[in-house]
Amino acid sequence: MQVWKRIALILALTAAAACTRVPELEDRLTPDLRGADYPKLLPLDDALEPLDPPKQAGEDLQDELDARAARLKRRAEAVKNAEF
Fold first, then answer.
1. Which residues, 6 or more positions from 44, have their beta carbon under 8 angstroms from its beta carbon?
2. What is the rounded CA–CA span in Å between residue 59 and residue 66?
3. Which site in 21, 27, 30, 59 is 20 to 30 Å from 74, CA atoms measured?
4. Taking a C-beta distance cutoff of 8 angstroms, is the pair 34, 28 a contact?
5. Spatial distance between the Cα atoms of 8 and 1, rounded to a whole number of angstroms
6. Could you tell me the pLDDT band of residue 76, with boundaries at 50, 70 and 90?
7. Residue in 67, 64, 63, 69 with CA at minimum distance from that of residue 77
8. What is the pLDDT of residues 32-57, one digit of tens each?
9. Rounded to an integer, what distance in angstroms lies between the CA atom of residue 1 and that of residue 13?
10. For the segment 10-29, what is each residue's pLDDT rounded down to a tens digit?
């Protein structure tokens, strides 16, 4: 029975602490922000710019990877042919 009393006391103290005002958080809002309306919500489709079609995005990525591979091959050849 002693354990249940301790658990009840801990729960009561935790509940009391949860209701405590946190001034360092609440005082950061200016008076005009406290009275401001919530911002208007937009549908996600309207908020984000449209993506490229997957085929186009895949082709762009492939072109970028091919160009990078060519640059790396040129650098490797330059290092291989360099005289130290």
1. none
2. 10
3. 59
4. no
5. 11
6. very high
7. 69
8. 887 889 888 888 888 888 877 888 88
9. 19
10. 998 888 887 777 677 667 77
Q: Which amino acid is at 68?
A: R
φ, ψ at 42 (rounded to 5°): -110, 150
In this structure, are residues 51 and 57 in contact, taking their beta carbons and an 8 Å threshold? yes
Backbone φ and ψ for 48, nearest 5 degrees, come out as: -105, 145
Please give the structure tokens belonging to residue 4: 């249940």
pTM (whole model) above 0.70:
no
Q: Work out the burial of residue 5: count CB atoms within 10 Å of its CB; fewer than 13 is exposed, 13-18 middle, 19 or more buried.
A: exposed
Q: How far apart are CA 84 and CA 73, in angstroms?
A: 20
CA atoms within 13 A on the CB side of 51: 8
CB contact at 8 A, 60 and 52: yes
Cβ burial of 62 (10 Å; 0-12, 13-18, 19+) is: exposed
